[in-house]
């Protein structure tokens, strides 16, 4: 479930983000981006739809999907699908990137603080002559709660 925290991002941040990518700012686009901005984890279209409804924003699920596709195309948001999930998740594309731990039991996602791949990327550059432009990393396992709740195989 998505909990709506108090708005951390100001409206002007969202407008600036849209303007940078040449996307017209609309009520729905702003509402969706605000949700993503204030969420610690990437959200599915369904979660966004439900959170918006709770927030009394009237929107169709198909509009949420269409808006997310458009924002992905414009590279305002990043779309990714986690292992074991059939629904894509969306997050705002920031200059600095994030990694996360995903619990295979309760599907909780915990953002990781550092990137373990920086050194590895440097090595790829010098040893293999690769120009690395980015990477994706998710760590899977049992979170603290699930580890203690269920007997392990
Ligand atoms: Zn768990
Ligand atoms: Zn990284």
Note down, in words, how this protein is organized.
- The chain contains six helices and six strands, in the order ααβααββββαβα.
- By secondary structure, the chain is an alpha+beta fold.
- It has two domains: 1-94, Arc Repressor Mutant, subunit A, CATH 1.10.10.10; 96-153, Ferric-uptake regulator, C-terminal dimerisarion domain (Dna Ligase, domain 1).
- Helix 3 crosses helix 4.
- The chain is flat and about 50 Å long.
Terminal Cα span? 28 Å
Give the helix tally: 6
* Total domain units: 2
Secondary-structure-derived class: alpha+beta
Q: What's the mean pLDDT score?
A: 87
CATH topology of the largest domain: Arc Repressor Mutant, subunit A
Assigned CATH architecture of the largest domain: Orthogonal Bundle
Counted beta strands: 6
- The main sheet orders its strands as 1-3-2
Bound small molecules, by name, code or SMILES, are: zinc ion
Low-confidence stretches: 3-7
The gyration radius over C-alpha positions equals 18 Å
Instruction: Work out the helicity level.
Output: 25-40%
Order of helices and strands: HHEHHEEEEHEH
Strand content: 15-25%
Shape: flat
Largest sheet: 3 strands, antiparallel
